[in-house]
Every structure is written in structure tokens, then in C-alpha cells.
Amino acid sequence: MDLTLATPVQYVPRVGPARAKLLAKLGIETVHDLLYYIPFRYDDFSIVSPIAKVRPGETVTIGGTVTAFHNAFTKSGKKMQEVKVSDESGTLEVIWFNQPFLVRVLPVGTIVRLAGKIDWYGHKLVMSSPSYEVTGRDPVNVPPAYSAISPIMTGSRPVIQSLHTGRLVPVYSETAGLTSKWLRGRISFVLETVLKHLNDTIPESVQSDHHLVPLARAIQSVHFPDSIVRSETARRRLAFDELFFLQLRAWHERRVWELSKKSHACRIDEKKVTELIASLPFTLTDDQHGSIKEILHDLTRTYPMNRLLEGDVGSGKTVVAMIAMYVAHLNGLQSVLMAPTQILAEQHHKTIKGFLEPFGISVALITGNRSMNQESGIRVKLHPGILVGTHALLSKKIKYQRLGLVVIDEQQRFGVVQRGTLEEMTKRGNTPHLLTMTATPIPRTIARTIMGNLDLSVLATIPGGRKKIKTWVVPNEKRDKSYPWITQQINQTGGQVFVICPLIDESETLFTAKAATTEYIRLKSLFPELQLGLLHGRMKPKEKTEVLDAFRRGDIHMLVATPVVEVGIDIPNATIMVIEAAERFGLSQLHQLRGRVGRGDLQSYCLLFTEQGEERTLTRLKSMETTHSGPVLADIDLQLRGPGELFGTRQHGIPDLHVARWTDTALIAETGKSVKELVASDPSLTAFPLLRDKLGESTIKTITVD
Length: 706
Ligand code: ADP
Ligand code: MG
Description:
By secondary structure, this protein is an alpha/beta fold. The protein contains 22 helices and 20 strands. About 40% of the residues are buried.
């Protein structure tokens, strides 16, 4: 069978179904994936030396003939292989431990290359546990000339046949049953057979402008470079491609969105909007004004808004969304505000109803608690009103009428499936405008790269400013001292306490609920004089509401909760935030949790408990003590942990990078500029059929927030 890039990897010679399963674990499904399986480092075995010239401490490659093989034992009784290898200059002893099978691989007379470190073993100079590569059999057992291996060093083209010695040797992430050595063999095979089929889709002008090496050469030398410099040039080329396509695709999706989706274009009644804003009990911040302007401008267009409103907890996102919903109402359109939890939905409902009912607008609450009959009633009554609720809003039983605007609060809490349903619910007729809100900031560099189809508004300030929340990382040995301090604070100031229990998973699990329950019982015995409450996602909605009401009234001093509970909850009298196992959280998430205190006038505190003494962990957590800006913390997290672990990364739809790094801002800027220039000169990519094909390959998901 002829191999192509798309061929399942199982059909590569010497792979087969069993190994294909193992390869799948490494994310390798096709021949293409194998080509793009990039080594994470190289062993430098490029120094080739005649045996007589090896020196202790050197890592070298030697070549010669096996002249003796003994299975022996060490003093402690371990199995040991003693092998003598000779070239024209001399003989070297080579040892392995516990590899008795080698006698079959390297019998006397084998011509072999060995790469490894030269060291003393007792008073003898040996090469210990080297990589080996059999290059032939020597029936007459004449030591080959040292020059026999010198072709590795000559010529500008790397000699690919030498895979494991005598060169920079690629080392790959392995999985049980698949070694780097084996991967090297298969990768070198597909390089030889398939590389020529690889299409270089990056336009030539771009390649020359940015001094890129040709794609095939890049792939070749990222695996088998003849120098570190070559491997770096190769990586730069592959990283360039990756970032280039991410940005081109984002731009393309945006264009498809704008050209193909229709929405209700709203008229903005400035006078009425100003009236509503004037009726609010506070003055909007400049950021709120700015975001409202951006959002309302989106609403006037004939294609749907797809905007993300980002702002720390307490930055006042709800009222911004509410003004957009008011404009939709004035245009005879229904709007929906979806919150991730019942309690938040109730809170939003209360707020919005309070502000909008005086203007004659009906605001309904839809949560899982209501029967669907009531919901059908609501929809008739409500047109063109506002529906606030949980994911119950997605129920098929609700027939929306002229749905013009969908607002999703804390969008990272909604799974992809639910966003899919949102698409279903709006299928008929126009696409509603979409506004998503989040307190999880996306690091700037990432936002710029991938958000081509999503506009971003940011509330960077907190209304009225906010006292800095004093934050301390509390190591284990100081934990006991902090409890009396907490009691004292409660007694002196009357402030209340949140205790957040470890994050087990990003979704609420039984395990998380258990952890909170256990801690609740423990703290109850520690603080017999206080009233404690427990809140986790496995409780019934009614129980949750009761506990939160009691906490709000001040009947509960200390609320033990799981991290995913009630993201945006507003309790001004809460002044202490205790977070258990803080090291398990991303900085952005810690910042969000911390934002639940410090909402009133009292000085507030955040205690980050950790049992981990590792310096890296402590340094990361300690940035919470000095930094109080969400976006800055997100950037620190990106630098320290990488986006893979960044809280909310997956939910924001941020893709994993294979070769490029999110921290490589220079290359991100360079590729961004390149994409911009290209599409400015040729928006339909008419002159670039290869690029068009490549964009067409992926089904374009223009819908919802991704
Ligand atoms: P979040 O961005 O976390 O969702 P909210 O919308 O819940 O924040 O707002 C937090 C609190 O601040 C609410 O009580 C809200 O009424 C109030 N608020 C919003 N905007 C302002 C403002 N400009 N000045 C004072 N308070 C405001
Ligand atoms: Mg909120």
C-alpha cells in the first residue's frame, strides 16, 4: 500500500494495530501526525572519535567490531554485559547492566556504532550503557577502519541511515511499549517515503519575506538536524506555520460569520438609553461606558455580534449586559441572560427586574425548578421581554419569539454541548446577537492570535475602586496559628468567612462535595462557638438558596464551599477568603475566588493554604500577595505554567500549540502582521488556492463563542 499523509499510522510497515493503539496515546493517528511528532530534545552524539582518542567524561560515538562478549556479574550480583569493541586505533571495553539479551544482538563479529559517555569503571576506561546501532556483520572479524564511519560527518546532507549514534539524536516523549529508538526508526521511514508528498501551503512571498526554510527541509531537520542551529531554524519554520494558520483561520471564520449570518440590526434610541443609565443608583465607570458603546455599535449591524465582555468579579458586567438587553427590547426583540447556577440566575433576575420593571419591561426567571407549563405561559406574556435563567433556558419547550440577544454569563462554565444547544434554539430565522461575559481573563497575546472571530471588551476597573485584599500564602506549619486569628477577626469586625475546599476537577464532582463536607465537619469542631454553613453543587437548589440567604443575613459566620459554587456571588460583609490546597488552582482562578471578599468597606483578607513546600509553587502563589490585577495574573500564569494548565484555557477554546509557544510574543506579532498583509491584499485568497483548500479542510465553526 502506498503511504500518503492521511494514511492511518497502523499501515506504516512495522507498526500494525497494536502499536497504532500505543501511538494513539501520543496523539499520533496518521502518517502526517508521525511527521509532526516533534522531539523534545536531542542527545548530542555528534562527536565521532577513534577509540584510542576517547577521554573520560566525553560523550562520543565510536565505531568498530565486537571482539568479545561476556555475560558477567557485578560484585553485588547484578547481571552485567562486558563487551570489547575494536577499531584500527585500539580497543575499548563497553558495559551494560541487566541486558543479557544483548548477546543475541551484538555477537562477536558485529559491526556496531556506540554512543555514550566515557567513564572510569574501577581502574578501567569504559563506555557505559551506550546507545547502539548495528551497521553490519564482519565474518572474518577484521576491525574496520575508523574511517568507515566518517561519512556521517561529511557532506551537507545528514546521513539519515545513522539514527541512534554519531549525530544529534532526537528524543521523543515516550509511552509504555514505545521507545524513542523505535519512534526514530518509523519517523525516518516516513520521512523517506512521504516527505515528498508534503504540500507547502505558505505562499512563497511570505516564506521569503520571513526567511523561512522550505517545509520539507524543516521537518527533516527538526527530527534529524545536523546542527542545533539547523534544528532551531526548523522549529521556527514550523512554529511560524502553526501561528500563521491559527490567525488566518480566525480571520477567515470571522469573515464567514460576517458574510453569512444575518441578524436583527437594532436602532439605538440614545435618549431612552441615557434615561435608563440616569435612573441607575450609581454612575457608570468609563470602562462600562466604553463597553456599552462597543456593544451597541455591534447591535446596529446586520450580522450578529459575537463579543466577549471580560472583567474582574465586581467590575459591573451585569449592568452593561442589561443595557444591551434594553436596546433589544426597544427594537421589539426578546433577550435571554443565561447564568451558570440557579443562585446567580436568581441574583441577576432580582437586579435586572429592579432596574427595568419601572420601564415597563417584564423580566422572567426560568430555572429547572419551574414546570414547563409555566414557561410556555411566560413566553406568551413576555414578548418582547427578558428571560433570565439557568441552562433550563435551553429547553426545547421554550419557543422563543424574535430572540434578538443572548447573553451568557461566566461562559467558561458552560460546556460545548450546551453551546451547541444554544445554536439549535436559535436556528430558525435570524441569528441572535451573542454577548458572553467572563471574569477569567485571556492573556493578551492569546487573545490577539485566536480571537479573530470574537471581539473583546474589557472592564479593567472596579467601580469606586476597591481596597487591596491583603493576601498571605500560609504554609502548613502556620495553619494552626491562623485559626485563632480568624476567630478574632470575626469577633472584632463582624466580618464573615468563606472557606473554599480543594478543586478536584473543574466540574462539580462527588469527590469535591465530599472534601467540602469533611472540612465542614472538621471546622465545626475547631470553631464550636461559630455558626458554620456548607454549600456544594450536589445540594438541592432549595437547600443552596437557604444556606446562602442565611449567610447573607449574617446567621452563618463561616461558609465552607466548593470552588465552582456561585461564581459571582455578592456578599459585602464577607471579609475573609480561605482557600485550601491553593496550589491546585490557577492564579486567575484564585484571583476570582479572592474577589468574593472585599466588596464592602471593611479591610478584607485572603489566606492561601498550601501543604506544598516546593519553591516554584510558593513563588507562583506568592505573586498573589503582590499582584491584584486579573489580566496580569493571567499573564504570570501563562509564563509559569503554560497555557495547558491555565484555568479556563480549554473553555475559552484556546488550542494547544505543538511547536510554537504562547510566550513567544515576537513570533506571534510577526505572523499576525504577515496574515494581515496577506488578507488586506487579497481578502478572498483568490491567488492562494492552497491556503483556501487548507481553510476549507476544517469545518468552520462560526457559531457561538468559540
Ligand atoms: P460582575 O462583573 O462581577 O458580574 P456585577 O455586575 O455583579 O459584577 O456588579 C457588582 C456590583 O457592583 C453590583 O452590586 C452592581 O450593582 C454594582 N455596580 C455595577 N456598576 C457599578 C458602578 N458603576 N458603580 C457602583 N456600583 C456598580
Ligand atoms: Mg457577574
